[in-house]
Amino acid sequence: MSGAALTFTFDGKTYAARPGQTLAAALLDNGVAVVARSFKYHRPRGVMAAGVEEPSALVTVGEGGRAEPNTRATDVFVYQGLVARSQNVWPSLAFDVGAINGLASRLIPAGFYYKTFFGPPRRWMVYERFIRKAAGLGPAPADADPDSFDHRAAFCDVLVVGAGPAGLAAALAATQAGQRVMLVEQDSVPGGALLREDVRIDGVGGPEWAAQAVAQIRAGGGRVLLRATATGYWDGNLVSVVQRLAEPGQVPAAAAPVQRLWKVRCGKVLLATGAIERPLAFGGNDRPGVMLAQAVRAYVRRHGVVPGRRAVVATSNDDGYRTAFALADAGAQVVAVLDSRAAPDSAIVDQARGRFAVLTDARPIDTRARGQRLATVIAQVGGGEQRLAADLLAMSGGFTPVAHLHKQAGGDLAWDAAAQAFVPGTARQAQASIGAAAGGHDLAAILAQGWAAGSGGAPRGFAVDDPLGMGTPAGAAEVPQAARGKAFVDFQNDVTLSDIDLAWREGYRSVEHLKRYTTLGMGTDQGKTGNMAALARLAQAQGVDIPQAGLTTFRPPYTPTTLGAFAGAAVGEHAGPVRRLRLHQAHDDLGAAWQPVGYWFRPRSYPRAGESLGAASLREARMVRQSLGMVDVSTLATFEVSGPDAAALLEMACATTIGRLGVGRGRYTVMLREDGLVMDDGTAWRLAEQRYLLTSSTGGADRMAQHLSWLRNVMAPHLKVSVVNVQEHLGAVALAGPQAARVLAGLTGAEAPAHMRCTRAVLAGVDVLILAASYSGERAFEVYAPGHQLRAVWNALHGAAVAAGGGAYGLDAMDHLRVEKGHVVIGAEVDGRVSAHDIGLGGMLRKSGGFVGWQGQQRLAIATASGRRQLVGLTVIGGQALPEGAMLVTQEGQEPLGHVTTAAPRVAGEGWIGLALLSDGRARDGQELLAWSATRNLRVPVRVCDPVFYDREGARYRD
Amino acid sequence: MTGTRSTRWPQGRYSALALLRGALGGHRHWGRAWRAAEPRASYDVVIIGGGAHGLATAYYLASQHGIRNVAVVEKGWIGGGNTGRNTTIVRSNYRQAPLQRLLEHSLKLWEGLSDELNYNVMFSPRGALFLGHSDADMTRLAERGDSLRAMGIDAELMDVDAVRRLVPLLDFSPHARWPIQGGMIQHRGGTARHDAVAWGYARAADNLGVDVIENCEVTGFVREGDRVTGIETTRGAIAAGKVAICVAGNSGHVAGLAGLRLPIESHTLQAYVTEPVKPMIDTVIMSQSLHCYISQSDKGGIVAGGDPDGFPSYAQRGQPVRLEDAIAQAIALVPALSRLRMVRCWSGVTDMSFDGSPIIGDLPLRNLYINGGWCYGGFKATPGSGHLYAHHLATGQPHPIAAPFDLPRFAQGRTIDEAGVGPMPQHR
Amino acid sequence: MMLIDCPHCGPRAQEEFTYERTRDSVVPLDAAPAAAMATLYARANPRGEEDEIWRHTLGCRGWLELRRHRMTHAIVAVRPLGPAVLP
To answer: How far is CA B317 from the centre of its chain?
Structure first.
């Protein structure tokens, strides 16, 4: 091969390729006719197309985590060392046992699987295992992706999709008009149709003209992306464009992503997406050597590959003749041109008659192969039949404008009877289609149209020199009356004309039913080549015109798009955000075991060497009961509510009394949702006459922030109040235990505040706010400090705590302590389904109402206690641990009465206790139940009791 | 519910033998799976909505209750709404008892459905696995599993090694943002072929005399006082003894035609499928902490979805960011998905009810009934939904399993809130 | 993806915003319980235009009211909510 500079392998054999060749071109160049096997019948398949519409030539490219199965050989450009493999074959591409399906094809017509394999589901799964193994095209990937993907946002006045003649003219004009232009092209070089035609524009050859146009657009400030496919068109004129920075399987440049997803918000979009040639339906139209006519031209002119020596051209339109000329010019023998029209009449046909055997009213009806490659074309010519020896059949059944993006954007399609094609109709967003995508076929007209679209209406002529002259529009889609053998419509999914006829007979007559029943258009080529022929057959069966037969939906993406590109960087460790405490390092230094809580990571406990998590948390909890402990509570939701109407706003959010709270005092409170069930709990503190601090749960922090903002801005815009979320500004450490007040006083030089009082103090040189609130049952204080000074406060507290026989404790110990005190926790006891009464807080609610949820909680089934799940305590009878989440039953096998919401070992004592939500629980005090965990095979006898196990009078934190 | 094996199939009973006969005769003997019925002037029951739920309702009315003077009216083609847009997952492993009973009733019907309908709906109990990513997740999964087992429904807790054996391609590295700690599986859960469910019910209902009327959109209701006596459609008025709305996704719109407002908002939910590859994921994967669900179809495509778009819409058109989130989460769970290519994505319009549970039962107008509000979980309920709705329509009384799902539960505070998020569909 | 014209920030992508509820479902705190529940639960859910309350959560955090078509997603009108727009 001349000019070869690259080598690649296919099924282990090394071949040479020239730069710029697609894998398909290189394989054809090397005489590789069979590239793949089809999905169902495992028929040998070659290359049919030259672009993204290729249905058949699918291979796996690349290795390991870079392997890309189902890569269209027409959509990967050869790079040095490319590794490609055939797929869905066993034992080999040349001899594939799966081809036996073809022999049994009469047994397995469309939808055969709906009619058999009955019996119990397990029996179906036996058959299904074989079907699953047989299905699936490429090999399943097994490795993680070694490369990265990224996302980029862009804005432009005009986005032009497609760098063919229409798109280039439009982008040029828009650039010259001073617009911010973005031009995206899925191919590696600009030019589109110009790459396969022998034409000159303004005296320059097509490909050169295209390259010059791109240079001018770039010089004018436009952004041109190659190997960039506009795959999705969304609301708000947002177009997603996926750019390949490395070819499939190729190692990207250092530190560069393999693909980039551009999200382009556009003033206007011009869709110059071209048209796709339709295959003809005839027996054996899938044999290697049968190709689309324009594809043949592209291989000859662009890639320097002549895919056959003896060619037949079969066409329904003038454009097919151009391929005959291209082949002949390249030295191939054109055996005949089969024109399905009875009396074609145009300049190009006249030219052709002088050079080739032009047969009219002629069409292929069957083929024969030698080996696996096309050898004979059987043609129907008028009333007779002819056998033509040929190794290449170039076919053209007309053109389908690429209207995918237009349809995704919400546009309508119109039927162009002359071209027998759907063309873009009314657009719903700011977009227009131009060029072949709009049904155009005359190059000069397309260029002029593109220019006008880009310039905003200013005309410009282009001098087009086309030695073959203009063709007429594509003729009617050919629908053969009597196909012999298998006439494929959907080449990838092996859907034949007879499958379509069968679906029709069985009543799957809506085009969507037809598609779903036969799997037509459901392949990786998304029906780009096959759908129109099927539609024609359906219309014929219905006795209607094609537009009346209906149309399936065009769904994103336009071409199959790598999942990694959608995900971007948000994978692996970055799949979700991580929120770290300001004191993360301090906890880490103390050997914290970490616990994920939402996006946060909080210390679960600080186990000593060799100590289990359970032992550590019990030790820490007992430390709190005996001396003191400190815990990081910086994640609590914290809001400062201030202004003359601060209390009024709080009384909307909180179901308890706020307004009468004295300055320097705090109160436990609960917030309801509108449906009257508990949303959250927390504490409210009056820091000054018109200033409050509201705390609520960590898990509900975002929801509470939204809720308070809602109340303030929508429900009560008239109130004079400000709500500031101060969680990010402040940090807090809670100090608890019998020594807490003494230690705190020692550090601040002032007496610690009494229970539910707050005060300001200076600790370690930092101004702090001290709230005396207790969840542990011991005297306890939350010390709030500005986040950047929290470490100093922590260090001082920790030093003093250790000196007093205490230290840090984690979430597990905190949980043990609060269970013993019967305090509920959002997410465990408060599960979004309980009322305040259910968890024993009903007495706190304001009788006067006026808070969110007061109406909802009066609904009958909530206000009536009977039958509701209520908070109770559980003590284990015996020495077993209590399994959290276990069902509470009267005996094994019974339906559950409730479940263990939290379980903990006794801190002040031995054995296990728990909290539970239990149906009519308060009436069951003293009842013995079974905590039954069937999934963990545990049965633990428990006794129902009051949920407060420790210091019921609250004497320990009041002294 | 069985015993239909002896049913006669004038249009041809399906079997391996019949296929063989078809092979010899060019498959010319197959008749229409269902007739293209023309609307008649009146029916005992008219079901609005030719999705799988509506078709199932018609089938059970005819097969269980002998009510065969039934029409199913469909605005487009049957199975074209959410029946054909879901991710085909079937399971009954919910946490709230009324939902457990409802979905388990449905799951039992799934297990015999292909035989009953003489149509292979490809129900494949390949297991529905919930992953846990922390000790807290595992406790919640155990709680759910324990509650299921106490209700007589299968559930098995799995440690990380068992999960690894089942789905080796999951990311088990400790560096994963959501490391996998274990899971809970319902072995009887799995997937089914969604289109086949609609077609199978349509064929079986048609075989019992039900009229399946496509391209017939309801435009209004005919009323006498507070009694509904029929419907107006694009193909004329149809009188009906009872009118059964079964249009999840569009319940708000259709109820609106009768002047009713429901605790339902319609939201968009997206899903996608990749190019087909050889088997790599043999079970249905869901997650306790992440919002995505993944399975592999028999054809080989990876089918997955995520959260609804978060705002009301009837557009059947998704927003790209939610799609990207769902894909990123899928890759976070199964890193080898990264280079697979999406071949299609689509959206369905879901009936987001205000407690996340369906609404089945009477409406404030006499002879008008509702079955909707299925949120994003309707497909798995198809046989049960049809069966229970048919019972209600035939007897005038709710089936005990469906009784908790009545409309008055919202006014009375009897909501069934699996997620515990309250009356906020966008947070579900 | 919809482009929402935030009254404070200008046109921004929908992903910055969160939908809250319909205007007509806002429950006054002084409504009687039965009326409150009817307001909360009975939604028109039209296949057409509806007044909706959204928040520019990942932007200025301001609240706004949109009149939006639920089939076409066309936004007919936007107005700000909150104390700043009180007369």
So the answer is: 20
